[in-house]
Amino acid sequence: MGEKTDVWQGTLALMVLRTLESMGPQHGYGLARRIEQTSGDLLQLNYGTLYPALLKLEQEGFIRSNWGVSDNNRRAKYYELTKAGQRQVKKATAEWEQTTAILARFLTPAQEA
Amino acid sequence: MRKLRALWMRLCGLIAAGQANGDIDAELASHIDMHTEDGIRAGLSPEEARRQALIRLGGMEQTRQAYRERRGLPWLESLLRDLGYGLRRLGKHRGATAMAILSIGLGIGANATIFSMVSRFVLRPAPMGDPTTLLAIQTTHQGDRCCNEFPYPVYADLRDQAQSFSGVAAYNELIPASIGGSGEPERVWGQAVTSNFFSVAQLPMVLGRGFVEGEENAPEIVLGAALWRRRFNADPAIAGKTITLSGHAYTVIGVVSPAFHGAEQVLYTQFWVPLGNAPTLAPNLPKESDRGQHWLQVLARLKPGVTREQAAAELKTLASRFAQSNPATDKGNGFFFEQAGSLPPSVSGDTMLFLAALSAVALLVLAIAGANVANILFAQAAARQRDMAVRLALGATRARLQRQMLTESLLLGLGGGVLGVLLSLWATSALSGIRLPVPVPLDVSIGVGWRVLLYSFALSLVSGVLLGLAPAWAAARPLLANALKGEDALARPGRRFALRNLLVVAQIAMSVVLLCITGLFLRSLQSASTIDIGFRTDNMLMMSVDPSVHGYSPARTANFMIRLQERAAALPGVVSAVATDVAPLSGYGRSDGFRIPGSPDAPSSWVNTTLFMVTPGYFDTLGIPRIAGSDFGSETADGPRVGIVNQAFVEQVLGGRNPIGVQVSGAGVLYQIVGVVGNVKARTLGENTHPVLYRSLKQTVSSDPSSMGYTLLVRTGGSPASIEPAVRRQIYALDRSMAIYNEQTMDEHIRAAYFLPHLAASLFGAFGFIGLVLAAVGLFGVMSYSVSRRTREIGIRMALGAKPGTVERLVLRQGMILTLIAVALGWPAAWMLSKMASSFLYGIQPHDALTFAVVPLFLAAIALVACWIPARRAASVDPMQALRAE
Fold first, then answer.
1. CA B612 to CA B668: how far, in whole Å?
2. Scanning every residue of chain A, which has its alpha carbon at the shortest distance from the alpha carbon of B1?
3. Interface pTM (ipTM) of the complex?
4. How many percent of chain B have pLDDT more than 70?
5. Per-domain residue ranges for chain B?
């Protein structure tokens, strides 16, 4: 359970941060839909897991939240990146790119062979 | 950093849980609403849209739970819940809780008090710079168990030749002096040190400095902080001022830190003067050139990087070199060292043994207390099995329940620890108030320091965990079916309360051991109080002076004491007055080997004899019977030496021959025996009666002066205390500046001599009493519990015709069988352990028949009472009531 969740939460956190960076302040439902869209609907997100992940990011100081009003005049909690969050996006992106690059080297020859 | 921040936020989340619950609910509601709206827009019916939204969320409650777990710290929350629940439970069962905390508190208090002694006398390093590299060196002599002090030349050779040390300092540990200034003159004790003492010991100073090289003979003085405060009002500008010490002028150069009062941590010395200057204060110190007189303590600082093994090897080499160069004095000598500030080797053995015995007994008390509490907890666990079974049935894990039980017992342990520390605070301050029966200033105060607190905390935790183990095991494994039906779920076939019985047997067995030891010490005190000390103690006043610290020559000192005696004897209300060097039973004295001249000079013919200096009338004044010959009085100061001996001397030195007129020799002096008197206890109560030789004070002071001062003994017609001011005036009439000390009645003096048997008897008595009460309560608890569990069985027995008497006997028999087993186990253990105590017992054997006969009977009687109450309750069971109850 532990390891899978960690990997999943790690990538989910990066998706959330990237989405907030590109879209600006967003509420939980909007974030969930946006992440699905960005993944080309390849990702079937269990929306419930988003909220603990948001809470974790908020506790770590990468995002902050405020109650606001949505486009359809509905009260919703809006999340936005903090300065630390912006730095974290860059750092995590770089790390992730490196990881995928390394993994790619392992996977590519296998395909060639 | 981020982790820390998150942890902090989660801690905050724990506190603001209520508010945040509303927050997440609103957020999730808004999420569902938006999702539902989107669904409707996509053409679903409102119901279907909402259902889809909930499915995609993964369930409201699950999400809320995941969120909650992330918000707070689940393990901390459950711990806090356990604590809260535990506290509530303990609060509800106030009686049992109070009993448990009191039991553990007594046990931990006893341990903390004893440990404060261990901490003070064994663990605490000396308050000197870097104690681990500072060694106290002693000389040894072939065949001796331990150690002696240094002659000056040996010290000087060691200082100059040893390569292992960066510095070697020497000092004489006790120099008396009288200090003038404001108020009445006061006798104080100090040390004479080599000029490098302060740099070798690296002593922190309150102000000024210590001695430096070149000040070996300087009339300079370093004061202890306590003396500086008391006599000089903590004058911050005292450095450079001149003070008067025993009539001589000294320049104060510094004040040493309050923690330091001598390198031996037990002595309480208050000033330091250069060693070369010491003869001014103590004229009879040995000469620095004398290689045969051992009178100096030595401290050595290890060079950085030199190990103790290397130092020991070098000392061994040096010892053999010295033995070759000075065979007359150094042959067979060696060196011995240990870390500075350790107990002096002469007393450390006995002290360690005493402390070890006390620690063992204190742990025994704690074990008995622990068994008691374990029994209480076990009974509670049995009563809670239904509660536990319900929780198990509802899905609680057994580990969760065990954690709950352990939390409760830990709470009890910690509560007991707090009470124990409070008790030991009281006990240590009471023990610190005890005055030891010695003439030199000692600091034996004990307190509750960080080591004691740590020890108590560890003991609380350990006892908390141990106590909780059995109940936790029991509570979390009830037979579910039985428990839910309300039947006994712990009692398995063929195993009725086995663990509880085991506990109570262990408890009583330990009490047998404890009570036997207590009994021995009480008997020892009783036998000590019947010891015939050989002289009368009533209506007698003592007062000591030390003219030598006031610059008196020995001849003037003798003259002073004789005139003082005459003046005191002439006072109204005084029956007689005499002077002596040391009052009997002072805990110390002077001695020499004696023999008849002409007898073969084998070591065995020298009999160790205690020496007293007395003036005429001493024996009549103290009520020591004069058996043969005459008293002193006719001798002249420089005439032939005369002596009066006790009966033990006649038997052991003279072999029973008629002593009058016989000449004996000791330390190179011939004495003609002119009289025989009765035996007295000379130094301590516990000593075997041994030879004593009384010398004439008039003849002896000049050649062999006392370094401990002289004591005036006054026999009064009425209350001795009322004569005291008049005697004091007579001393001041002879010399206004004379410092007076040890003023007390002889009865008070003797009470101090009973210090050890009293201390041992009261400590062990307290422990024994606590243990007995705990064991009795424990047995009572077990029997009561057993009766309450068997109410139905008893009801059936009675319904079938059993008489109340039969039922009573049934319960009594069960209790007494436990007691008998326990006594059978504890008695031999006590028999074996009592040997350990033998060196602290007065006048009784360690296998004292009375103690070992009475204790089991006494304990059995207590056990009978403890069982009798529940037995009566069993007998009064109403069969109808009992059968209807369940």
1. 17
2. A60
3. 0.84
4. 93
5. 2-72, 131-340, 349-529+756-884, 547-738
